[in-house]
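Changelog excerpt

This revision adds worked examples to the README so contributors can see how folded entries look when concatenated. The first example is reproduced verbatim below.
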Amino acid sequence: MSKRYPSQAGHLTALKLRTPKRSELPADLRKYFAVCDEKIGFLPNVLAAYSFSEPKLRAFMGMYNDLMLEDSVLSKLEREMIAVVVSAANRCYYCLTAHGQAVRQMSGDPALGELLVMNYRAAKLSRKQRAMLDFAHKMTVASAEVGEPDRKALRRAGFNDRAIWDIAAVASFFNMTNRMATAVDMMPNEEYHALSR
């Protein structure tokens, strides 16, 4: 496939950076992009946007895959829930659209994704999930105030120290991606809006 990547509003970002044709990418990246096409039906614009720099694309993919797809004490749904709550606090349009859809899909509950986008405190969550999201939210809006009482609250809710690390790592990653997406006006794929409704 040699076409350039489609995007909403005619652009991937507000920056004029040349994104390569797929045929110009190394074979492993072409294969990765083809897997995206096969599994979700399209290539997420974030990957297309990062493709202007192969090292940056690989770094982004490596961190995302490690945090969101590899083994963790947290379920994949819980990690997506963190992504949405952090993105809601940061008002990141790209990540709210993409990860809100992932929550709808993984939970089988279209309302849950919307509740987490609007106000996670209104969602029917387990005590453990609420503690996890409270911690991620505080990390986002008041990171300098996070301390041992917050970690103790997670332990009381049933999280071990490895899980606390993973909660913090996922929240930290999405704080970075939210800021980057907003700074460059990254647009989500239109397809996300209609999926898992």
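The second example, added in the same revision:
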Amino acid sequence: MFVRHSLIALALALSATACSPSDGPPLAPQTPLAQSPHFLRWAGDVAPQFSAIGGVAGGTIAATGGAFRASEAVVLGLEQYTATFWAVRGQERSVQINYQSGSDVPQPFLRLTVVDPTSVPGLGDLAVGDSVLISVTVDAESIKVSLEPTGLVFGAPARLQMWYGGAGGDLNGDGVVDGTDAYIESLLLGMWYREGAADAWTRIPAVQAPADESVTSELQHFCEYAISW
């Protein structure tokens, strides 16, 4: 009886060894878990103050000498963080959002330029001269932005330029600006997007300008965008 039990124990041990992942490929392929990008966060303990030039909430953009701009900068409310402007098919219109931390002078955070909106979700195609109200909503914690109406389609791409200087150089959020942050900036940083809150983030083609601390991408439609790695 003792010998029989010993043989059974030995067989179980050999079976466990034969199924060990270290001795061969697993029985089924291992799918890596989806990972979210590392979002850059605004430096400091207090959210910066934002202002918009070129877009007036609830209003239109005045035309002067062929250039479209607001009559004055608009300070965005802390509960709102949103600027709006009318985009017109066939006309270049843009909005720039600046940020200010403490007593610092305003610095650029975002510039969105739209020329050729062609189709509005739920409304259909736009003719030349038709307009659509665009909303730009800033995230107060991370360097992200939501552009609406979601799914707005363009003929000629819209151009989105985002600056990441508001992170204060701490790109991995460890509280220290060092060589790791320089590595992230030079090799990992880019523009990411997602369609909705339930969708995964995906990196998109973009042009980085380290000297300017900005990333620029051509957009074919609107959704949520972030500078991440």
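Reviewer comment on example two: The first strand starts at residue 49 and ends at 53. Residues 1-34, 55-71 have pLDDT under 50 and may be disordered.
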